## 1
Amino acid sequence: MESGSEEWEEEEQSDEEPHLVRQHSYAIITAAEVEGKLTKELSDFSELFGVSMDEGLILLVSYQWNRHRLQDEWLTNELNVRVKSGLSLPQSDQTIASSRGVKLGSIRLVFCAQGDCEICYKRLVEKDALQCQHSFCGGCWKEYFEYSVGEGPQCISLQCPRFDCPLAVPESMVRKYLSPAALNQYIRYKCENFVFFEKSYRWCPYPGCTFISEFPNLGSHEIKCLCAYTYCFSCGEEAHRPALCRTLREWQNKNSAESENVTWILANTKQCPHCRKPIEKNQGCNHMTCNKIVGGCGHEFCWLCLGPWTDHNSSTGGYYKCNKYESEMQKESSSVKKEESQRTLAKTELDKYMFYFERYNNHLKAQKLAKQQLPEAEHKMQLLHDVKHYPIGELEFLREGAEQVIECRRVLKCTYVFGYYLEAGSEKNLFEHLQQQLEENTEHLHELAEKKLDEFLSQEALDRSPFYHYKSNLTNYSQVTKRFLANLLDGIDNGLTDFV
């Protein structure tokens, strides 16, 4: 188990000096550790409720691991809960009502029956069945379980193979018949179900990663997984400080929705006053024609006032000026003025969005390039070690510098999401100043991290002082940039102008 960010608190001791104990805010655990925690939760629950481990798992999965709701309903009417969860066969409403508040005790699951298999109709002496007594041979049970695991996570909530039987299948029977590979997948699905509904756990969202974060405090928190991916515990997206989860969702929706196309159309086109098709002005002349070649109606009109072009002559200002438009714009209630005002507002909003998106996208691309250069940093370390015999410990600064660039690019990318929604004022002015400083440091650090090291690898380069000068420069800039990054994020969290 690996622990994440740390806090310190005092532990009570008899000595006068307080002893500081390291408190971990989150932990990175494996699927095997999750299974252990799941088993302990299941064991405690089964002991408390007086049911078997099989029954306990069926109940908890049925109630999505909500022990409080399960306990309330169990104490109110145990039989009703058993029927709903598939532990007992359906009962009449009168029977369920009369059992309210009655302790029924643990129901024993049945694993033996006589007769033919109800699927393949082979007659065998030993068969397995649930309380419903619907018996099936071992081969059919195995095929049923193997197929269900192949179908996906729903395999942890299996019912009797008989089409009209609602009884749940106990895990002990599943384990009896599954092959080792299928059983591992079944356990994986069970752990995924547990982690999904237990809010203090989250799988690392990076493709192929099998680690889980455990964060008992819940809420928004940056988790750095052992696979080196950093993500938000609250929403599961890549870590996005200083932007909030809801702000990031709004930004993502804005980037992917067709609304931006509509905004562009509104800002850069006008509708033909005759057929209402949108028309873009791509030449200087105000004489517009709704072109029939592209499905228009052929109507000719003025781009400014939208009036028929036949009304335009030398008295209205000719081709490049429309006096009618100018006079309409002087009227407060003019529809032309209202439309032009809306168009100007849409264009302003579009320009603002493009400004922030361009810079957001630039840092996104730079972040991807920096990630691609991380293996190159590892390669540089190996070359310097093999060719010039530098100790690996002295070369860690190359990897650390590359990782710091990646983190800064990720944060800078998200600062433009944050800045887009930040209201104008002193807070935004100070934020943009700190953002600019971080960008300047990141750009310089990125250049240092990308530097070719051929001059240090040459066999003729006997003087090592230039290399150590480069190391000192890169290390110092990494630390300075790291402090700029921390100050920016802490300042945003605590209110930038509160400390001016």
## 2
Amino acid sequence: MKITVVTTLPEKEWRRFVEEHPAGNIFHTPEMFQVFSRTKGHQPELWAAVGDDGHVLALLLPVQITLLSGLVSYFTTRSVAYGSVLCAPGPEGQEALAVLLRTYKRQAKGNSLFTELRNLSDLTGIQSTLQGSGFIHEGHLNFLIDIGLPVDKVWGNIHKSTRKKIKRARKKNQLEVIEVHNHSQVTTCYSMFQESYAAANVPLADRSLFEAVLDVLYPKGMAKFLLGQVEDTYVAALAALLYKDVMYGWYLGFDRAYSSYLPNDLLVWYILEWGAKNGYRIFDFGGAGKPDEDYGPRRFKAKFGGTLVNYGRNICIHAPVRLKLSQAGYQLARRFL
């Protein structure tokens, strides 16, 4: 069979492939592509391998990210495939994936420092193809919480000490959870995310990302924003993405001055309970760091009783010298700024 690599697809065929594929996730959807298209500093790309009949055999959707403009962008631009790759089952799909990745590497070289595939499912079966195409595997952890259970079972799987704290906080009834539905509230959510990311010295995407999610995903029931409020003050925010029977814990932020109210714990439990009651099967906690690093958010996420998995990431470096210079500069910036 002849395999052709294309950079556009009929939306109907694109959507069919993602919806029918067992590993298809929200980051593979046309809707998420639209979101990134509307986001400042983000340029999504579509790469697909198709057969003679026009059906998709492999799919790659990297997003080129440039958070700094000018000459600095040459040392900071990277590409991230947030949902990793998809390929049809069997040898034909893997052959198509290999052709796709080889073509992508030839044409993408020089545009980004590297391309990172963030694996949201177990890709052991295609690792030989990925690594043979120059995408080296690195360990990266995540927690998956089974919410396809009765609510009391989901509650019972949370660590006992955390359940006690949540019960005490709910009994005090000091935190009100509000569901977000307008741009003004999204702006408030963004300020919460900014505070948490600044405290961790990690760059945050532009606000336009969250505004695009509200405009594109929210009307289709593919996103949910929550705000935690104490009296007249917003103190925490959570953003989740929804697709098929999976909820993705995407962003979480809070005002540290209100940590005694346990806003993060309460918002996470709220979304878990809502998901369990509304037919969702899995809550994907959005990453738990590298296995060999002491990662604070991992300790927080572990409290909710999920299964720790190591699907990892696959990375292809396009510009090794520039990447080393970039990494050195980033570490200096984190240290001094």
